[in-house]
Each structure stands twice: as C-alpha cells, then as structure tokens.
Amino acid sequence: MTDIKDLIQPDRGQDATAIHLTTKPGFDDLAKTLSAGQRAALAAQKFEGAPGSVGIVPDGDGVFAVGGVANPEELSSYCLAALAERLPEGTYRLVDHQPGAGAFGWITAHYSFTRYRKDENATGPRILLTQQVGRMPGLIAEAEADMLVRDLVNTPAEDMGPAALEAEFEKLAKTYGGELTTTKGDALEQGYPMVHAVGRAATRHHAPRIMHLEWGPKDAPVLALIGKGVCFDSGGLDIKPAAGMRLMKKDMGGAAHVIALAGLVMNAGLKVRLHVLVPAVENAIAGSAFRPGDVLSSRKGLSVEIHNTDAEGRLVLGDALTRASEEKPDLVIDFATLTGAARIALGPDYAAMMTRRDGTAQEMIDAGRANDDEPWRLPLPEAYREYLKSDIADIVNAQSNPYAGASVAGLFLDRFVEDGVDWVHFDTFGWCPFPKPGRSKGGAAYGLRAAFHMLKARYAG
Q: What is the predicted pLDDT for the residue at 124?
C-alpha cells in the first residue's frame, strides 16, 4: 500500500477531482445547480445525499464526485471514508470545505491486511488535498496507530506469539529511545508468578514473558500503560468450544492497544515518565498447565484460587498492575479483551470502561466523544466484591454466578492496583465483526483515541 503519509497532501493548486459534500435535506439545492444529464447520472446511482453515499457525475470531459455527510460544517472521523473506499485512484479536493477530522477515516479506508495474500480488489491510492497542513501530522499518526492495532490483532497466533510482541517492544524502544526489560520463562516465578502459571504450558514454543518499557524524564508524572497479551487462549483445561476459540488470536488485543498508544504518547512528546507493561503468554493445554482448584501466589502477595482457567487474562494483568503500582503512578490505564459480558452489554463498537474516579471517567468520555471513539462507563460496585470470596484463598479468579461479569472482572483487577491510584480499565473487543466505511472486518481499536486525547489534554503541557 502507498505510504499513508502520502494520502493527505498539501493543496498547492494542483489538478484534482472536485468532491462536493451534501446532506440528504440539502441535496435538492445541489441538484438545482446540475444539468438534467447530471441529475440523471446521480439518479441512476440512487444518490440522494444520505450520509456515506457516493456519486460520480460527468462534467464535460471529466467528472466530479458528490458525497453525503451528516454535517459538512463539522466533519466526523469516518464521514469521508466511503468516498475514499469507492472513488477511483486519483487526487481529490473538497469544494468549499477542508477534511478536518475526516482525514482520519480517509486514511483508514485504505487499510488492507495483506501479510498472507495480495488484495485482488485493491485500487491505487486516493489522495486528498488540504490546506490544514498543521493539523494533519497528528491525525496521520493516529491513523497509523489504529492500523497498527489492526495488523497486530489480525496476525495469527503462530506469527504473533510472545516473542513477536517482544519484537514490537524492541521497535518502540529503538524508535523512541526507551529502556526495555524483558523477564521470561522460569525467571517469572519470582516476580510475576501468575504470569508464569498461565503461560508455563506453552514454554517450549511460546515461552511466557513480561515486557517493561520505560521512557521520559524521571521527574515527570508517572503514566503506566498495561496491556493483556494473551497471544492465544484455548481456555486452558477449562477448554473453550471450537467456536469460542476461533478468534482467540485477538486475545492480545489489549497489548496491541497499549503498544499503539505508547507510540502515540512518545511521538507527541507528552510530559510523562512512561511505563508500559505487557504480560505475553499463550494459555495452552499441557501436563504443566495450571488447573481449576489450584491456588496461585501473586506479586502483590494475594493468594488466588482458580475457579476457571479461562479467566486467565485478569491473572496476568494482576501481576502487571502490581508492578505498575510500585512506581507510584499518577495514572494507570489498562486495556484488555477481558470478558464476553462486556460485549453482551455493549456490543462490539463500544469499549467498556471502568474507573475509580468520576472526573477521570468524564475526561475519557469527553475525549472519546470529541474524536468518535466514545467509551461507555460500567460500574465497579462494592456490593459485588463478595462474588470474589474464596473459602481457602484471598480471592477467586472467577465468580460462580452469571451476573455482572465485566464489572466483577474489573473488581478483581482493582485488588491489584494500589489504593488511591487513579486507574482506568478498558474491556475492549479488539475486533470489528461488521465492516463499515473506514473500519474493515477484523482487528480494530476501541478506546485508543479516547485514551490518547485524554492523555494529551492532561499531559501535553
């Protein structure tokens, strides 16, 4: 694919095909300016100005395009994506408007996962001109981050195991001058016993590890980003059915989000001391697999009784959150593809978000709403802590009832975050099952832009 940096270019008056934006209510006014033949061409394409609709209109020896949007005066992130997907290769210019936020979807509409095969339907790049040159680098960086999440999640587990995630950390460290420490294999038993327990059944081929990247001035506020890196989840001895296992290459989606988010934070030069921790494991089945009924030790010192080996993500996150808390962080954010309960509650398009502080929740919601990536807050109810009581240990890893699964998982994680620490937990799907313009089927980022813009607002100064 063409370098995405080339998809949005400065408008220097070069030749370009015009794009006229309209709304459904405003289409009649546009139609009055067209010839009978042009109106007939649009009628043949069933173009009536609805958001996401695209038409191509003959104009002398050439053509121009029309695109339906909700509001031409306030373009949203994906409002130009259908145009970018359906127009032929070429260079384009919006008439009477600038792309603004719509540049994001224009870029992501070009995404295609081609690691294993060529896209036979691929067309050449559609280049969009803009006079908003200063705004574009940030949107381009966000689009790159979004597409990185897609690439990492779309890659099968054999090629995106713990070692491959470590390689992504090495790229980050090299690009931005970060300090990377990796603890792997049996060395995890001492400092990260739950990471070791979950990953030890896959040691031969996909040894468990935890990556810890540090960046930024040591006297800056500490920002900790934690990502669930379960590179494949069989369910362990509580094995998933085949249908439930089919998409489990995406169970490292939380890791993909924080890798992308860390890149955005460092690229923007935010005033933080960044700590990024990703426990990377495969939840496999072998004679060495941890078992239902086992009691695990943890970095925090809490003992954890295993009720379900398929509730493994919260275990590896528990050790990572404990380590992050040791840095006395100003803010901790974790991302995880954690529960089916969150998907049942919110569907695939909203990241479930849980926080300790109302103000932090509102910051995230406002940032997401302004950037077309709104999370939805779920509670951390004190009344449900009793669901995690164990008869023989400090806590169980999964409740025995079917209620409030996402919130109870959040309450489990809460036990491993130091008291008083500002903490945000994202339970995100990491997958787009129903493609839309600019959002192809497959790996997807939810909550990424909300978190980045919240962090920019808090730490840019």
A: 86
